[in-house]
Design brief:
Length: 135
């Protein structure tokens, strides 16, 4: 049993929380662009139909390919943000969407995680496969 899907949003790396002072207290906040991306991705993921009999409480294996639009002036062979930051964003969006897994700590296996450039705007996004596995 596998769940395959596509999130047609430009991949967004997770960001570290920022801090500011409010009076005598430090307050953490995150980038507004990241919060908006997370909401959009979770909304798309909520609409993905899980297979009949899917158990969201099981350990999971994950494969994901991040397809990023190549800038016209880039000499890089691959996107520059760290792969693990792209992965963290996606896993947070799946957790926020609910229904696929309860928490991203259930991901016990990463089968394939890849980031690549694409020149086709229709391919920009996250292609993923999630499947229950043994712990």
């Amino acid at each position: 049993m596998r769940l395959r899907g596509f999130v047609p949003l430009a991949p967004k790396p997770s960001v570290r929380p920022r801090f500011t002072c409010r009076g005598r207290f430090a307050v953490a906040y995150s980038d507004k662009g990241y919060a908006a991306w997370l909401d959009s991705a979770a909304s798309i993921l909520k609409d993905i139909e899980v297979p009949k009999g899917w158990d969201a409480s099981r350990p999971m294996a994950l494969s994901v390919v991040f397809k990023v639009e190549k800038p016209k002036t880039s000499k890089l062979l691959y996107p520059s943000p760290d792969t693990d930051n792209y992965l963290k964003s996606f896993m947070d969006a799946v957790t926020k969407a609910g229904g696929i897994w309860i928490d991203d700590k259930q991901v016990v296996e990463l089968e394939r995680v890849r980031k690549v450039f694409t020149t086709d705007p229709d391919e920009v996004g996250l292609h993923f496969t999630i499947k229950p596995t043994e712990a």
